[in-house]
Design brief:
166 residues, mainly alpha
Length: 166
Amino acid sequence: MIQEQLKTLENIIDKEIDGYKNIEKLYIDKKEILIHGKGTDLYEVDTKIIDTYKNINNLSETRKSITKSMNIPTFSLTDLINKIRTEDEVTAKKFEQKRDEVKELAQKIYKLEKINVELVKHGIYITNKTIEAMLKGVSISTKEYNNKGQNISNEQLEMSSIIEEA
């Protein structure tokens, strides 16, 4: 019975690892989209990331129920490894490798997400500066006219009595 559960857990963890690898690839794609300013492609990638995380979450729930039936206090890989180490050292080693792979993927995804957040912040900064420049250009041209629509140059005073006398 325990060997069947371990095999099922191994398959689930392999699927989770595949999901994390897919997310890593999607985060790399997202980084390229942000670098090249292809905002229209961003929604599609984000949707795929969310769907993949949902699948991983479902797999984790299945893993949780199996580990619970095995009287393991949590569904963490470390607890699983500690539980099976006394019974099956070879399988414990395989799960250790899988745990290490998950940790490595999690670190890569975290770094990619940090980069993507910074790229988004930079994009917002550039957009704000572009809008500021556009508004500054518009405000300069509107300052050339008074409220009556008359052209005001810098050499003339706006007081009509002084202009008429001169």
